[in-house]
């Protein structure tokens, strides 16, 4: 299912799939199905997109396939977690704003509760010294982290093959995006949206030039061949002016929190700085979890030294093993950061969770009403393949930065590489589910510790 949707989003939208006889889902059905998806949705955003497509388009016929592809493209072009934004957007199309809140929150909360509990437990273990270097628990964390990096690599390959395929231009955009991302010694947050926009511009220009080279008759024939899709039953949530207000509120929050946080020492208002860091990252970094991770790691580990790299990578591994969005690693990080600062771990978990998710959720509620007019814009449609290819390049680049962090923090760097390769083989070749692969990584980490493989 994911392959089909990705291919659809890589071509001019609305040119795929004939219209279906769609019937909106009720609030009860949305709540039931998204609670199940929130508890069983393992495998990361790529898998979530496939699960949503199977449920909404193939099984229940709640949404037309071409409309689903458009929604996916919109979410890919916004900052924030794509699969989470899709969960809100799908609910909005069925039952408006209330439907979006129900579907999105029920998809997010199960994994968030689990990661909060794990974060609080880890914070307590840190207090007792159970995760100190040389312990079996530290070795377990290193094993989990190794498979976490392997999962990112698998996601990059899967998305690359689905979005870029064999199209030379999209492959070139992907490679250029990855190379330019790796060029600075540290991740530059503003570089990501610049690369995404640049990829879209290149794609739009290329498509426009190739279309202009064809005869007018052929171009008109292609336009006439596009199916007429009935969208009368689709809801957009807020009105256009209300959506614009939500986007404005987000921009004012970002500006206000940034000014206040940057003018206040971290020592006097640590909670404010935690919320600002996660809100800023969620607002300005595109490409979802794999792209956000290296930026967050740079800010909270390298720049502010709130936690260690090993703890961050352990959170990554655990988040990959939990159902729901990868952004749910934020309450885990918040609890560990709060424990290190000697403050309430539950407050830290909540602030970081809200900070990372809020921008993307606000953007989907604000932009979706405006999408009504944008979705038929040909320039927008021609830009989507380039934006998607550039986003994949950012994910490929994150593999290198995460691997470097793993090498720096692991008690056994060589064994960590071996565990990562093993985990990749389990996922890619053996089709072993992500939770089981991560668990195997933890077991292999303990075995490496027991065998005395340390450097």
Descriptive terms for the model:
mainly alpha, disordered N terminus, 455 residues, 76% helix
Lay out the secondary structure.
Elements: H1 2-9, H2 27-40, H3 44-59, H4 65-76, H5 82-127, H6 136-163, H7 168-182, H8 191-212, H9 216-225, H10 240-262, H11 270-284, H12 289-303, H13 309-321, H14 329-341, H15 345-374, H16 378-409, H17 413-428, H18 434-450
Helix pairs in contact: 1-4, 2-5, 3-5, 4-5, 5-14, 5-15, 6-13, 6-16, 6-17, 6-18, 7-8, 7-16, 8-16, 10-11, 10-15, 11-12, 11-14, 11-15, 12-16, 13-14, 13-18, 14-15, 16-17, 17-18
Gyration radius, rounded: 22 Å
**What's the shape?**
globular
Question: What are the secondary-structure elements, in order, as H or E?
Answer: HHHHHHHHHHHHHHHHHH
Structural class: mainly alpha
Give the termini distance in whole angstroms: 44 Å
Low-confidence stretches: 1-20, 225-230
The number of E-state strands comes to 0
Specify the biggest β-sheet: none
Mean pLDDT across all amino acids: 80
> Roughly what percent helix?
over 70%
Question: What proportion strand?
Answer: under 5%
Q: Oligomeric form of this entry?
A: single chain
Q: Number of helix segments?
A: 18
């Amino acid at each position: 299912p994911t392959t089909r949707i990705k291919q659809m989003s890589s071509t001019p939208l609305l040119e795929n799939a004939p219209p279906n006889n769609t019937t909106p889902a009720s609030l009860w059905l949305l709540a039931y199905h998204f609670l199940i998806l929130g508890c069983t949705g393992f495998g990361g955003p790529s898998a979530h997109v496939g699960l949503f497509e199977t449920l909404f388009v193939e099984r229940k016929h709640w949404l037309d396939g071409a409309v689903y592809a458009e929604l996916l493209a919109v979410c890919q072009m916004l900052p924030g977690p794509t699969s989470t934004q899709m969960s809100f957007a799908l609910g909005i199309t069925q039952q408006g704003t209330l439907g979006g809140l129900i579907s999105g929150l029920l998809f997010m909360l199960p994994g968030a509760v689990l990661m909060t509990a794990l974060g609080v437990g880890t914070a307590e273990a840190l207090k007792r010294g159970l995760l100190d270097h040389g312990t079996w628990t530290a070795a377990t964390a290193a094993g989990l982290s190794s498979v976490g990096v392997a999962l990112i690599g698998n996601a990059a390959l899967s998305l690359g093959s689905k979005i870029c395929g064999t199209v030379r231009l999209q492959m070139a955009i992907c490679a250029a995006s990855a190379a330019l991302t790796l060029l600075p010694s540290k991740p530059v947050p503003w570089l990501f949206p610049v690369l995404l926009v640049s990829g879209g511009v290149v794609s739009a220009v290329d498509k426009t030039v190739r279309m202009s080279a064809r005869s007018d008759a052929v171009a008109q024939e292609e336009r006439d061949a596009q199916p007429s899709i009935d969208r009368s039953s689709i809801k957009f949530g807020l009105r256009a002016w209300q959506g614009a207000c939500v986007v404005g509120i987000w921009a004012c929050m970002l500006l206000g929190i940034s000014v206040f946080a940057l003018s206040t020492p971290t020592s006097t208002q640590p909670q404010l700085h935690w919320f600002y860091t996660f809100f800023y990252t969620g607002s300005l970094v595109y490409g979802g979890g794999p792209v956000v991770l290296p930026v967050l790691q740079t800010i909270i580990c390298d720049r502010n030294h709130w936690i260690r790299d090993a703890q961050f990578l352990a959170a990554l591994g655990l988040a990959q093993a939990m159902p729901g969005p990868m952004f749910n690693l934020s309450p885990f990080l918040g609890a560990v950061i709060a424990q290190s600062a000697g403050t309430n771990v539950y407050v830290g978990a909540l602030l970081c969770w809200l900070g990372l998710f809020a921008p993307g959720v606000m953007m989907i509620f604000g932009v979706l009403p405006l999408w009504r007019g944008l979705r038929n814009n040909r320039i927008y449609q021609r830009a989507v393949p380039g934006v998607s290819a550039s986003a994949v390049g950012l994910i490929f680049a994150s593999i290198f930065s995460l691997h470097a962090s793993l090498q720096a923090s692991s008690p056994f760097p060589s064994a960590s590489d071996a565990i990562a390769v093993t985990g990749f083989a389990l996922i890619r070749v053996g089709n072993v589910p992500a939770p089981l692969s991560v668990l195997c990584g933890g077991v292999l980490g303990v075995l490496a510790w027991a065998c005395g493989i340390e450097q």
